[in-house]
Amino acid sequence: EELYPLSTHVARLTGVPLATNKPIVGEMAFTHESGIHAHGVMRDASTYESIRPEMVGRRRRIVIGKHSGSTAVEAALRDMGYVPDTDQLAEIVARIKQVGDAGMRVTDADIMAIADTVMDIEFTPCLKLRQFTIVSGSNAVPTASVTMLVNGGEITGAAVGNGPVDAAIRALQRSVADVGSIRLDEYRVDAITGGTDALVDVSVKLSKDGKSVTSRGARTDIIMASVEAVIAGMNRLLGEEHEDRSQNSD
After folding, report:
1. Of all residues in the chain, what percent are helix, strand and coil, respectively (each to 5)?
2. Could you read off the pLDDT of 77-113 as tens digits, one per residue?
3. Is pLDDT at 160 greater than 90 in this prediction?
4. Which residues pair with 127 in a beta bridge?
5. Nearest 5°: phi and psi at 82?
6. Residue 27 carries which DSSP code?
7. What's the pLDDT score for residue 37?
8. What is the DSSP letter of 38?
9. Rounded distance, CA 96 to CA 90, Å?
10. In the chain, where are the structural domains located?
11. The domain made up of 127-238 is a member of CATH 3.30.160.270
């Protein structure tokens, strides 16, 4: 049960990341997306897994994307507290596939936003960015300051980091420290277009009190894309929890 925690600990200490396709401890191990594949695992895990992920300190992960079927999407929605009817589920699946077909990773925040729209659920973000400043250079320590509106109140946070992106994320975390302790577990960058003005897609995984969420931001500015992704995830983690988001829940 300590194999995966030990592997990630060694990776952090050595600075050598685990290959995503590495057996047992890689990010893609015990991860399933394809409709038939995911459905089979949910029915009988031994169909595609020779050992239980818990034996090595892992958890099974059903990734939602363009290959996902209604069974996997419905399971993911229920984990998030949504209870769609048959027609709503079909529409949500179709929209998720559209996002995946566009070449973008489908995050938890994407799924929630789609579900909110299809099921006509109003989601009011508790965090709003009011002002953001970053200072960085060859002879300057990367420093970021941020002013946020949290449930109508204004708060400010500042931090230094190993680079402008690191400083920005640390400033965001510090600004909401009184509301909740949020940890950055994963950070990923993809260039959607080419050139120096490329559109950058940033995906992050945040966690709080055992609950995790993935979100993303897309900008030509990698720092603002990172800020956008983190704020989107924070809003979902800090937002009001609803045990039942079915259409008739109100």
Report:
1. 40, 25, 40
2. 988 889 999 999 999 999 998 888 877 778 889 999 9
3. yes
4. 150
5. -95, 140
6. T
7. 64
8. H
9. 10
10. 3-118, 127-238
11. yes
Extract the tokens encoding 42: 């949910």
Q: Which CATH architecture has domain 3-118?
A: Irregular (4.10)
Residue 234 tokens read as 């924070």
| 206 in Cβ contact with 212 (< 8 Å) | yes
- Token pair of 194 as six digits: 């080419």
Token pair, residue 180, equals 């909740």
CA distances to 69, 142, 221 from 216, in Å: 22, 23, 13
125/231 Cα distance (integer angstroms): 9
pTM of the model: 0.72
Note whether 155 and 140 are within 8 A (CB).
Answer: no
Helix axes 70-79, 86-101, angle to 10 degrees: 100
DSSP 195: S
How many residues in the chain? 250
Closest CA to 10 of 20, 18, 1, 21: 18
pLDDT in the model for residue 248: 44
Is the torsion defined by CA of 52, 58, 64, 65 positive or negative?
negative
